[in-house]
Amino acid sequence: MKIVVIDGQGGRLGQLVVEAIQKENIACELVAVGTNSVATGAMMKAGAQAGATGENPVIVAARDADIIVGPIGIISADSLLGEITPAMAVAVGQSKALKLLIPVNRCQNQVIGVKDMSMSELIRETILRIKQYAESQEA
Question: Is the Cβ–Cβ distance between 97 and 65 less than 8 Å?
């Protein structure tokens, strides 16, 4: 199973996701893709096995990912203060991967009906969904 974590800005959300996946010992190929080198570095320090930075790595990684995890802005062009290009948003949106989009209510993306949760609660929920997906693939 290949999990691609995409993040931008300082990479804190991606870093927390990578740390949680490592802590739970989820068997996977864990790839960090940052929209900038700071985000990629944060996720690599957290334990991702591979990492790359920029538009083309997002496009390439989205092609064969089983799960893509990141802030909801990764499917919206010009989100993350402009770090998500239209090509990145299209690549993520068109990917056949399960997309676990964390509802960070910034960058003019707000999800109606989703309760306001702390970052640690959002990460816990994300890890639960990854485990459920992994279990469904084993059956």
Answer: yes
